[in-house]
Design a protein that fits this description.
Blueprint lengths: L14 H11 L5 H10 L15 H13 L5 E5 L7 H18 L2 E5 L12 E5 L3 E6 H4 L2 H7 L13
Parallel strand pairs: 1-2
Antiparallel strand pairs: 3-4
Helix pairs in contact: 1-3, 2-3
Length: about 160
């Protein structure tokens, strides 16, 4: 999933069209797969809405559904939480966590906002021009490693005090 949508607001695409696009590109017409992908991320009621009229959080859900419409064990997401309010970020992370648990799909998420990670303690790779640390969020983002290699006061809203 790209960092931001490449769907132009001038093109009157509906949610259904965007979610179905990876299948259509391969000449596949699988309505059940599109319905299921939309159901998994909770956007089925928006199927016939114009993408350009949706909120940022709903647009991200549409793009996640598009990434899930074809079966995969690994989905790459580039900044899926950017430009989303805190409630929307929590909902999207919760949705991804549920998909991971229920469907055994792993997500490789590139992001700067680490605050959404705190609830689920996922495996993370902390990078700053090189690999700084790998492990569970709670282990990697400890005060010492953070202050040695990252901005000790701010990283996507997560503050380390001490």
């Amino acid at each position: 999933m790209p960092q931001s949508s490449t769907v132009s607001p001038e093109i009157p695409l509906k949610v259904w069209d965007i979610v179905a696009s990876p299948l259509k590109l391969e000449g596949i017409d699988d309505e059940d797969a599109v319905k299921e992908a939309m159901k998994v991320v909770g956007i089925e009621r928006y199927a016939h809405e114009k993408f350009s009229k949706l909120s940022g959080g709903l647009r991200q859900r549409v793009l996640i559904a598009r990434a899930l419409v074809k079966p995969s064990k690994l989905v790459l997401l580039d900044e899926p939480l950017s430009h989303i309010d805190p409630k929307g970020r929590a909902e999207i992370i919760s949705t991804l966590h549920n998909i991971h648990k229920e469907r055994d799909v792993s997500f490789l998420i590139v992001g700067h906002d680490l605050s959404a990670c705190t609830m689920y303690d996922p495996q993370v790779i902390l990078l700053n021009k090189k690999i700084i640390a790998v492990g569970r969020f709670s282990e990697v983002v400890n005060r010492d490693s953070w202050q040695r290699h990252m901005d000790p006061y701010y990283m996507g809203g997560l503050r380390i005090h001490g």
